[in-house]
Amino acid sequence: MPKKAPEAASFETALSELEQIVNRLENGDLPLEDALNEFERGVQLARQGQQQLQQAEQRVHILLSGDPEAPLTPFNPDEA
């Protein structure tokens, strides 16, 4: 049975979980399979965080575009 993708967490929550994973992996006490599972989750969280940062950067860029006549519209990450 394939693993279900976890729901996206807030950036801060994902970062906190990623820090916990790094600490557990650095401790070195995990069995190999558990370490691989933790690493896989860490990669997912890192990718999610990077995507959230890119979306925030796009929003800031739009807000600072310098065009005072530009229409203000809600940001939709699916259209970016």
Automatic annotation (TrEMBL):
One of its GO terms (cellular component) is exodeoxyribonuclease VII complex. It is found in: Cytoplasm. It catalyses: Exonucleolytic cleavage in either 5'- to 3'- or 3'- to 5'-direction to yield nucleoside 5'-phosphates. One of its GO terms (molecular function) is exodeoxyribonuclease VII activity. The keyword Magnesium does not apply. It comes from the Bacteria. Gene3D superfamilies: Exonuclease VII, small subunit. Its EC number is 3.1.11.6. GO terms for biological process: DNA catabolic process. Heterooligomer composed of large and small subunits. Bidirectionally degrades single-stranded DNA into large acid-insoluble oligonucleotides, which are then degraded further into small acid-soluble oligonucleotides. This is Exodeoxyribonuclease 7 small subunit. It comes from Leminorella richardii. The gene is xseB.
